[in-house]
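Example 248.
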Amino acid sequence: MSQDAEAWDGPVLVVSAHAGDFVWRAGGAMALAASQGTAVSVVCLSFGERGESARAWRDGKKLDEIKAMRREEATKASGVLGAQIEFLDAGDYPLRESDVLVDRIVQCFRRINPAVVITHPLADPYNPDHPSAARMALQARVLAQAAGYDAPGEPLGAPPVFLFEPHQPEQCDFKPQVLLDITEVFDTKRRAMECLPAQQHMWDYYTELARRRGVQLRRNAGPNLGLPHDTMAEAYMRLYPQVTRVLR
Ligand SMILES: [Zn+2]
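Predicted structure in complex with zinc ion:
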């Protein structure tokens, strides 16, 4: 594929507020890492049962039914992407930040020992659950690094954090600093998206977004790489500086 044939550094951990977020926004990264034999895990803080299941509510389903349905869909989607998923069932709309929930996320960090962390951006005026998830993920990452923090496992290193693209990026202070070429796994991402019929309106939206980000990727990569016309991409922001010996 692209300019970068290097392998992923180690386990990838995605912290997702709701059951669908990781699929739309990081499904390509997940499928790409998994296709290279890297362990990929999703920690899903809620099912999106209240805020992102409008169709099920309109169909007259009850809360427990909706949670079970969203659990099944997200499990299927993460399976398609080649990832493990666990649900902390912390509730949504609102997803409440608490020390107890952060501690549960710390335990995930210590167990999974990720080399790469992916989560929501820190601003989203449309959906406070998303920044809440991001704040808790970031706090858990820092606590998991502390030798003195009481949780099983070894202290965490300093895995880089990538913030995935929110639904309305301009409103969330999102700038595409990293464009990830997901062309070779895009069909897998599309199949994962199709596991979520409750949010069918998102399938084409995120296909078109991947196409647009793909055009931008090619523009930034320059013509010499000969990237195909149909390059598909996902955009990310970096939270911490890139550490490198070579500027590239
Ligand atoms: Zn969400």
